[in-house]
């Protein structure tokens, strides 16, 4: 019954980096000044793209020197974001962020590289977590294959076995954290429970159930479940009741609009958040409780919605916005869900890793946003205050 005592982490996927030198540059330009602003310990939740982990694994010296430089900056790393495989800051990311999916051995290989790297970065006596794609994208062709879910499950239980072997070899405990997300193969709490039931069944048949139960769990991104209009308190409790470990929590907020039909000012503001890089799944809750969905936010959806969408009681949009913001001008945020989720976390009998993950600073509209360093500092300070209550 506790909150993690590890330094609060923020995810460095907000900083472009396709080489070790660029990761170092981001740490010096952003992370070190943020730590100085905070005046307290800070963890770097590193995003290491495929080319970066390849470079780090070229030789033991490369990785050792990188680890030394982290220590020289007085930074710790106990978690990696291994969700984006390629360039997360390319001109168009959108659905490509889910590739390769977990039916592809390339996802397994990349995740193993990340685990090996993390095993060298972990502080003594600290467990590691590694967040990953929720199998794949529901709109992708592979998802329509009846064997897709089982193919993913097989790779994941094989991965669990490799994590056990890595633990035996290095003494480093690393757990995979599958991150449910709107429009993915695992997006809702109900789908999460179904997948883990299937994964455990297949793992038991293959003799890997113990490894799966130990090494495979969730990255619970709070705003993802908010976008689905789920009750986050109930969601976390259902996951705990199913003995699915939440290895990592992404501290996040999404955009919300109440009564969109009569809130033209908010819809006009929302239109400015339609942008070409990231996918912004858009959900509307109807008066009868039904959920209507669009795979991505567009100006047309905001300004000229269908009659059904316009008449919804509320919209929620998967656009990560600063977690200290209750509103953004006429737009509301899901910060109330963030508070409710963090309030229930101490009910767990373990302490998930905690990480702020607002990666969208470079695509936020308007002049209301300050520098990334100042913005991330405010987010982390606000989160520290929530966690200390």
How does this model look, in words?
By secondary structure, the chain is α/β, with parallel strands linked by helices. It has a single domain, classed as TIM Barrel (Alpha-Beta Barrel). Helix content is 42%, strand content 16%. The protein is built from 14 helices and 14 strands. The strands form two sheets. The protein has an eight-stranded parallel beta barrel with strand order 1-2-3-4-5-6-7-14, surrounded by five helices. Strand 1, helix 1 and strand 2 form a beta-alpha-beta unit. Helix 5 crosses helix 6. The chain starts with 8 loop residues before the first strand and ends with a helix. The mean pLDDT is 97.
Which secondary structure elements does this structure contain, and how are they paired or packed?
Elements: E1 9-11, H1 20-38, E2 43-47, H2 50-56, H3 60-72, E3 79-81, H4 105-121, E4 128-132, H5 148-170, E5 174-178, H6 189-206, H7 209-215, E6 216-221, H8 222-227, H9 232-241, E7 246-251, E8 253-258, H10 264-271, E9 282-285, E10 291-294, H11 299-303, H12 307-310, E11 314-321, E12 327-328, E13 331-333, H13 335-344, E14 353-356, H14 372-387
Helix pairs in contact: 1-14, 2-4, 4-5, 5-6, 5-7, 6-7, 9-13
């Amino acid at each position: 019954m506790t909150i993690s005592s590890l330094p609060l982490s923020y995810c460095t996927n907000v900083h472009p980096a396709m080489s070790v030198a660029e990761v170092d540059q981001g740490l010096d330009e952003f992370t070190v000044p943020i730590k100085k602003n905070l005046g307290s310990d800070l963890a770097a939740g590193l995003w290491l793209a495929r080319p970066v982990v390849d470079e780090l694994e070229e030789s033991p010296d490369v990785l050792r020197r990188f680890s030394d430089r982290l220590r020289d900056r007085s930074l710790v790393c106990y978690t990696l974001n291994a969700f984006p495989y390629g360039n997360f800051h390319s001109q168009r990311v959108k659905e490509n962020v889910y590739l390769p999916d977990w039916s592809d051995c390339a996802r397994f290989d990349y995740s193993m590289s990340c685990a090996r790297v993390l095993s060298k970065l972990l502080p003594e006596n600290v467990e590691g977590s590694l967040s990953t794609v929720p199998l794949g994208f529901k709109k992708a062709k592979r998802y329509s294959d009846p064997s897709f879910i089982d193919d993913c499950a097989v790779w994941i239980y094989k991965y669990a076995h490799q994590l056990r072997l890595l633990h035996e070899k290095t003494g480093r405990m690393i757990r995979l954290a599958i991150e449910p997300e709107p429009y993915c193969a695992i997006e809702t709490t109900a789908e999460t429970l179904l997948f883990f039931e299937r994964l455990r069944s297949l793992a038991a048949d293959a003799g890997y159930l113990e490894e799966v139960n130990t090494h495979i769990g969730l990255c619970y991104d709070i705003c993802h479940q908010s976008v689905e209009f789920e009750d986050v308190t109930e969601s976390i409790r259902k996951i705990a009741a199913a003995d699915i470990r939440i290895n990592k929590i992404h501290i996040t907020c999404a955009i919300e609009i109440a009564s969109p039909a009569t809130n033209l000012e908010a819809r006009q503001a929302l239109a400015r958040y339609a942008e070409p890089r990231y996918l912004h799944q858009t959900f509307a809750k109807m008066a009868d409780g039904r959920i209507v969905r669009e795979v991505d936010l567009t100006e047309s959806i905001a300004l000229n919605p269908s009659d059904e969408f316009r008449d919804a009681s509320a919209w929620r949009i998967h656009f990560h916005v600063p977690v200290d913001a209750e509103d953004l001008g006429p737009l509301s945020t899901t910060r109330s869900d963030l508070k409710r989720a963090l309030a229930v976390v101490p009910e767990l009998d373990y302490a998930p890793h905690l990480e702020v993950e607002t990666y969208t600073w470079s695509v936020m509209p308007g002049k209301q946003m300050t520098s990334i360093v100042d913005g991330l500092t405010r987010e982390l300070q606000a989160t520290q205050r929530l966690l200390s209550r």
